[in-house]
Amino acid sequence: MPDWENTFSTWTKRASDTEEEQCVNAETAIRKAIKASSELTNLDISVFAQGSWAANTNVRRDSDVDVCICFEETVGLGLPPGRTMEEYGYRGAAPISSREFRARVGRALVSYFGQDDVTPGSKAYTIRDNTYRVHADAVPTILYRNYNFSPTIEGVALDPDGGKRIVNYPKQALANGIAKNNATNRYYKRAVRIMKRTRNYLRERGDESVKFAPSFQIESLVYNVDNSVFMLPSWTETIRQLIIAAHSIAVGPSSPVEVNHIKPLFGDHSQWTREHAQAFLVAAWNKLGFA
Q1: 114-122 own/partner pairs: CB under 8 Å, 24+ apart
Q2: Domain 17-168: which CATH class?
Q3: Any idea where the domains of the chain sit in the sequence?
Q4: Does the predicted TM-score (pTM) go above 0.85?
């Protein structure tokens, strides 16, 4: 039987220094591609990392970079029922549509990286990895203001091909993850890495329960676990109790949230269901020898 305590301790580690450097290189290259584009020069754009690398929950040999390219002059709105955009001071057409902005970003990336290294997807442009950089996703978005909250909260919106608008709150997710990590003596993010490595461990062994187990959803599920669970004396006991607590959350009737603490973890907006979460946790419990 594996020595899980030592294995878990190893699994807490973030990406290696080499991988970290390649992640930085990927983000830097995308920034340079946007800056070099004549079509984007005069637009108000912010470029920032999001996802596991930005949150410092990426794991060794499984690192990539997710970079948000946000156009802040075209604004998506979340309005209370019965209210209009004019009431909030928005009049006239947007400078360019989100789809036109996305097309310009695509041309900028192809111009910089070359056609063979850029693959368009329904939501993002994938930049192929090489010896200098890791695989990266460049996500064109627009600024999103949600007036259903007081004070108003800001996120980003993207319009995927053939689908409904997706709204995310990456900056809130980053801040909340840091706060949770600080509140647990920095054990929260280590535990997230262990659960992601457990997902990879199951996947490598052909376990169907992790066929669809996205990193952000796993991270969000762990985020909903009470802080006290992360403070137990060993990693073996921590992961045992974490799986128990997470399974109770997945079964219900609680209403878990994403790390951003704004969107629900389960719902019509997400393909990851309570059943997906339960299947992953049961498989992890059994494979780790807790049964």
Answers
A1: 122/160, 122/161, 122/162, 122/163
A2: alpha beta
A3: 17-168, 174-287
A4: yes
Size of the chain, expressed as the number of residues it contains: 291
- Which amino acid appears at position 266 of this protein? F
For 159-185, the pLDDT digits (tens) are 988 888 999 999 999 999 999 999 999
